[in-house]
Specification:
Length: 162
């Protein structure tokens, strides 16, 4: 009789232990699975959101730079060059180069921005009037697709020097 009582107690104890362990493990697994899937989804959403914000900011700066060039505001356009470039090339040198160019910009539209890490590639549709030395072309309005590279440095996005 003692043996039977002991085996019933043992069975209940083992069964209780196994049942408790199974409940504990299944609860832990489902909770962990839900968090992993949710956190991976959240990381993807945050990354996409950050990339979109970055691309919008660069598009805005590229548009402002083009607007300054169209207005022939060389000082403002110069401000979009990286600080290191501005240290090497004074404003007057930049302005003289821009004034002597063979085109007069008339309109610009940012068509696309694609960013990776600290570099963004920008596509711009540019309308301009040729004002160079070739008589047959002088005064003609043309369109062109520009490709610009923008770099992140010192907390801001700058037009990369050519």
């Amino acid at each position: 009789m003692t043996t039977q009582k002991f085996s019933m107690k043992s069975r209940r104890l083992v069964l209780g232990f196994l049942l408790g362990g199974a409940i504990f493990l299944s609860a832990g697994c489902s909770e962990n699975d839900g968090k992993q899937a949710g956190s991976e989804e959240n990381v993807a959403n945050v990354t996409q959101s950050a990339t979109k914000a970055k691309e919008q900011h660069v598009a805005q700066r590229a548009k402002e730079h083009m607007d300054a060039l169209i207005a022939r505001n060389w000082e403002k356009a110069y401000g979009y060059l990286p600080p290191a470039t501005r240290k090497l090339k004074p404003l007057q040198v930049y302005a003289n180069k821009m004034k002597s160019g063979a085109i007069i910009r008339t309109a610009a539209t940012v068509k696309g921005v694609h960013c990776e890490e600290d570099v963004c590639n920008v596509s711009i549709d540019l309308s301009y009037i040729y004002s160079g030395v070739v008589d047959a072309m002088r005064g003609q309005e043309s369109n062109s697709r520009l490709k610009e590279k923008w770099i992140f440095s010192q907390g801001e996005w700058w037009l990369a020097p050519e």
